[in-house]
């Protein structure tokens, strides 16, 4: 209807219309720009803060930051503060357990024994004796569950080809052998009923936590144990008859 654009070529009218739309969009985006900029600055600040953190803390520089944060996370979970523990892991960027250790724990609880035994080589263990001892714990439970399920041949194969070649805990291997020959778990006090299977797997996991170095798998209540040790040393150093020492 007689507008200025009517006399323009179609291509110019299209560009003119697009320019108007762009100005409207840019105005809308301008309102969101301060929020986006703030989020970006916050993200950059957190990244720089993490990069600037020292690997050790404390006046003597002997406490490793990663280990200290993991101890606190474990303490929070143990005390029932699960959300706080998860928040600490997220904010610090330091997980309680590495991805491979978490896989190991999952395999044990699910009864994936072969995968669990294989994962032991991926979690940073350097002591071959520790690896063999941990593998023995896993394969022993595998053997017992085969036996309980009536899979005698599978249990025998596990004993001969996986447990015996470790060449450790000979007396225990003999006990397992006698259990296999008698085909009666109860006679050797090794009952592994289905209702107790989950509990026994948790016990295997607990034994692994005691066996593996704390730097690899944080033992449950590790911080409590260290604090108790410090309190005992403090009490012994102050007075042989002291009965109560405060943390503060």
UniProtKB/TrEMBL annotation:
PROSITE patterns: CTLH, LISH. Keywords: Repeat, WD repeat. The keyword Acetylation does not apply. The keyword Repeat applies. Residues 108-154 form the CTLH domain. Residues 16-29 have a biased composition (Low complexity). Residues 1-29 are annotated as: Disordered. InterPro entries: CTLH_C, LisH, WD_repeat-ST_regulator. It comes from the Eukaryota. Coiled coil: none annotated. This is CTLH domain-containing protein. It comes from Carnegiea gigantea.
């Amino acid at each position: 209807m007689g507008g200025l654009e009517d006399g323009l070529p179609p291509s110019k009218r299209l560009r003119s219309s697009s320019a108007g739309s762009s100005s409207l969009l840019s105005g809308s985006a301008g309102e969101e720009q301060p929020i986006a900029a703030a989020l970006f600055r916050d993200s950059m600040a957190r990244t720089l803060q993490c990069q600037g953190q020292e690997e050790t803390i404390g006046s003597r520089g002997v406490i490793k930051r990663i280990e200290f944060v993991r101890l606190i996370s474990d303490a929070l979970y143990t005390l029932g503060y699960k959300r706080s523990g998860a928040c600490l892991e997220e904010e610090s960027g330091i997980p309680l357990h590495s991805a491979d250790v978490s896989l190991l724990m999952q395999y044990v609880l699910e009864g994936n024994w072969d995968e669990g035994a294989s994962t032991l080589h991926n979690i940073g263990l350097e002591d071959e004796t520790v690896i063999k001892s941990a593998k023995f714990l896993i394969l022993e439970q595998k053997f017992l569950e085969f036996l309980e399920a009536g899979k005698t041949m599978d249990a025998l194969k596990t004993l001969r080809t996986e447990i015996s070649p470790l060449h450790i805990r000979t007396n225990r291997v003999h006990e397992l052998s006698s259990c296999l020959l008698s085909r009666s778990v109860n006679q050797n006090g090794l009952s592994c009923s289905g209702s107790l299977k989950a509990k026994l797997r948790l016990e295997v996991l607990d034994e692994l936590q005691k066996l593996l170095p704390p730097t690899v798998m944080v033992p449950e209540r590790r911080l409590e144990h260290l604090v108790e040790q410090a309190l005992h040393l403090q009490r012994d150093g102050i007075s042989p008859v002291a009965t109560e020492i405060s943390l503060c």
